Amino acid sequence: MKIITNCPQCQASKLNYLYSKKIDQHFYEWRDVLELNSLSVFEFKIFNCQQCGLTFRDARFTSEELSLLYGGNQSPNKKVVDRQNFWGRSRELDDFFLKNMGIKIEKLKILDVGGGSGELCDWFAEVRGCECDVFEFDCVPAQIKIRVNLIGELPADKPYDLIMLNHVLEHVNEPVPFLSQFSKCADANTLFYLEVPYELFHYHLLKTMGHYEHINYFGETSVINLIRLANLNPLFISLKMGFGNSIPVVCAIFKRDTNNHDAINAAEVSFMEFNVFREVFNIKVFWLMLFSKMKIKMGFVDKSHRLG
């Protein structure tokens, strides 16, 4: 494990300490990591950055530890994919763009970052005639009729119409350089779509461990500041329930507006200030969404009126 003392997003040193958690062999997901480091007990801390608003864990995984944690997800035994479920997710994303940007995702060049075996792009490729590349570090093709290209290196001088990052940046050690590298695959007309779990209620209210693979915990403020640090221009941001009313997510649409591909120095960024009242309001919205979902499951509300 690597322990960091500055914010992994903006490198600021002014942090709010929230709490710490101890991990031992009872947390089976961590056993391989603990054994790799010859540890029986490990403690990590949760901080919130005073400058960019990111909440994060100070313990970051090394490359070797990431291989242990994610190796099971890429097992050759993982072959069967619920294609219809992914198609539903793709249609929902298409509706989201049409409603909020007036854009239909059709006949576009798409780059899906961290897209696994291309399940999310399958519908866009087959039904909407899109040309899709999936950028993934290590994946095993699933048993679906793949109509996408699985790539391990970013193509040079190939601007895409749409670059998607779905549930990726909560896993990444250094989110700003990771995001900014994809500017090289964009031009002035390229749209980016980013979606991350909205997990602040875990860490600011419940003070739980949360998802063990997640190391960055985003809200609206930290997502906007991430986009600005990567030298990109936010166009739209929203808090909503994820596909199938599963988990709350923060989603953003943004683009490049300069010729500079690289991330910029934090001193040059006009940060959106972390606002406790804004995030408390968002947490309240989340609980209202969750309460509505629970009432539907318990049969108290007609399903035709459900949120999200």
Could you explain how this protein is built, in words?
With 308 residues, the chain is an alpha/beta fold. The protein has 8 helices and 13 strands. Strands 8-7-6-9-10-13-12 form a 7-stranded mixed sheet, with helices on both faces. Helix 3 (83-101) crosses helix 4. The protein starts with a strand and ends in an 11-residue tail after the last helix. Residues 73-79, 141-145 and 300-308 have low confidence and may be disordered.
Number of strands: 13
Residue share in helices?
Answer: 25-40%
How many helices? The count is: 8
Shape: globular
Reported for the largest beta sheet, the result is: 7 strands, mixed
Into which percentage range does the β-strand content fall?
15-25%
* Unreliable sequence segments: 73-79, 141-145, 300-308
> Strand-and-helix sequence, N→C?
EEHEEEHHEHEEEHEHEHEEH
Order of adjacent strands in the largest pleated sheet: 8-7-6-9-10-13-12
Give the C-alpha Rg.
Answer: 20 Å
Protein structure class: alpha/beta
Features:
4-stranded antiparallel beta sheet, 13 strands, 28% helix, disordered C terminus, 7-stranded mixed beta sheet, 308 residues, 8 helices, alpha/beta
Summarize the structure.
By secondary structure, the protein is α/β, with parallel strands linked by helices. The chain is 28% helix and 23% strand.
Topology:
Blueprint lengths: L1 E2 L11 E10 L6 H6 L4 E9 L5 E3 L1 E2 L2 H9 L11 H19 L7 E5 L5 H8 L4 E5 L13 E3 L10 E5 L8 H6 L10 E7 L2 H7 L9 E2 L2 H10 L3 E9 L6 E8 L20 H22 L11
Parallel strand pairs: 6-7, 6-9, 7-8, 9-10
Antiparallel strand pairs: 1-5, 2-3, 3-4, 4-11, 10-13, 12-13
